[in-house]
Amino acid sequence: MEYRSLYEKWLTLGSAEERAELEAIKDDEKEIKHRFSSYINFGTGGLRGFMNAGTNAMNLRTVALATQAICDLIAECGRKEDGIVVGYDSRNNSEAFAKKTASVAAANGVKTYIFDALRPTPELSFAIRELGCVAGVNITASHNPKEYNGYKAYWDDGAQLPPEHAETVAERMKQIDVFEGVLDCDFDKAVSDGSITVIGSELDEIYMKNVIAERIYPEVVEKVADDLRIVYTPLHGAGRILVPEVLRRTGIKHIYTVDEQMIPDGNFPTVKKPNPENADVFAIGIDLAKKVGSDLVIATDPDADRVGVMIRKNDGSFITITGNQMGAMLLEYILCAYEETGTMPVAPYAVKTIVTTPIAEAICKAHGVKLFNVLTGFKFIGEVIKEQERKDEPSTFVFGFEESYGYLKGTYARDKDSVVAAMLISEMTCFYKLKGQNLYDVLCALYDKYGYHLEKNAELVFAGHDGSEKMSAIMQKLRNAPPESLGGKRIVQISDYLTKKTTDLLSGKVTPTDLPVSNVLYFVLEGDDIVVIRPSGTEPKIKIYYLLSASSHSEAYSAFEVYKKDFESLV
């Protein structure tokens, strides 16, 4: 049993803390197998997992292993002098993991930068481009529970590693001995001798200048600033300084922060899970909003790349705005603001992922803006920006978003940015407030104009050491013998992004998907409802996306329940 020999090796060669932890599970064969049956998977999203001792977990050794593999890639590219920049969020062990990453990079002779404290993920993306680095690493597990941590790896364009580099790193990790094959050095000594450069507030200023440059209509903020009140919470994370500071600098006068959640804390004591998609994380913020008279509560996740919002309805109650809804509202606002100010840029284009609301297509068509659809993952939005910049003909990126609460305006970064999103959400609120509308009015008007759309997600979780095998079997079954219908509606088109083929089931015509290879199935039903299935790249689950249109919410939600029940009966 290979996992047993790995367990024994760690038990022998590990630190005192590791040995004590592993000794405690010596009689739990299932737990030993789970921890040592494989190495934690390095995918296009980097690493993510529970924090404990073992090969299949986030710890100092697996972080160092991944960093060594990335340093080998940098060396093969001949780019050690270009450097790597390291950031981290408020999670438990994030700072320690970041310092270990920097130490391994410095020991490999790679020019190394590290932030002096937690920073938003998008600033890490910005820093790579600003400093001219070849790579970057941010230690974060985004919105996952406190038991998790992660390792997001980036390349020189500021986007997460392209698939080919991620595969190279993953293969290299399998070849390196975690105890003997990793170079390391003392962090403090490396800082003192200049091998590691610590980044302070000087980069924050440059980053904020780039964010603020993305305003479209600053005059509307000036006109309503005396009456506008905004409540903000960073959910104990990295947005605590820069989000409110950017809002202040753009003219928002009345910003009320949720004091209990302004304290960086990897235990996230005020929430069950620090996810701005979940309404429960807004509870304290809503109480504050009611007290101060705010119609808007903004929350960012621990690494401050995603942003969630709750808005007050006309009856005084608060409702969650989904990532799809906010993305659509921002897209419509940006294009309307450009038109109203006469500043629409040359050849404007927007980008969304294939699991993001189709209402974006109607919005872009109405405004004469080109829309690109890409695979799930913000790095693919970054790829479109890069490809457009390479072309001779001019074009302007105006907005990119994905259903999972990620938004970007501007090309200073190549990852989703809650800082610029919070700024634009505030500006949008001012824009419509001058027209006598709140954001709930705006959402209703959007559906009146473009038709009602409902996007709902579901997931199938496969915990345990055989979870990946179960997921693979389900995807293979759906691929080899797809259903003829779902919820009583015939499937008329299937796109398989693994084979890169789209099949029209009515005509039999087969066309290329024109997107990179990915383990995704995309079903189009009669009436244009869409169901998308894909395994998560960072968690043991299959995600199902239902993109529906109807005449009303109740009709769309009823259809969702039927589709969901029918699909789950298949698997």
Describe the protein's topology:
Blueprint: H1 2-13, H2 16-23, H3 29-36, E1 47-50, H4 60-76, E2 84-88, H5 94-107, E3 112-115, H6 121-131, E4 135-139, E5 148-155, H7 163-175, H8 187-192, E6 196-199, H9 201-212, H10 218-224, E7 229-233, H11 242-249, E8 254-257, H12 283-292, E9 296-300, E10 307-312, E11 318-321, H13 323-341, E12 348-353, H14 359-367, E13 370-374, H15 378-390, E14 396-402, E15 406-408, H16 418-433, H17 439-450, E16 452-461, H18 467-480, E17 485-486, E18 489-496, E19 501-504, E20 510-512, E21 521-525, E22 530-535, E23 541-550, H19 553-570
Parallel strand pairs: 2-3, 2-4, 3-6, 7-8, 7-9, 12-13, 12-14
Antiparallel strand pairs: 1-5, 4-5, 9-10, 10-11, 14-15, 16-23, 17-18, 18-19, 18-21, 19-20, 21-22, 22-23
Describe this structure in words.
- The chain is globular, with a radius of gyration of 24 Å.
- The two termini are 31 Å apart.
- It is 40% helix and 22% strand.
- By secondary structure, the protein is an alpha/beta fold.
- Helix 1 crosses helix 2 and helix 10 crosses helix 16.
- The strands form four sheets. Strands 16, 17, 18, 19, 20, 21, 22 and 23 form an eight-stranded antiparallel β-sheet that branches. A six-stranded mixed β-sheet has the order 1-5-4-2-3-6, sandwiched between helices. The chain has a five-stranded mixed β-sheet with strand order 8-7-9-10-11, sandwiched between helices.
- It has 19 helices and 23 strands.
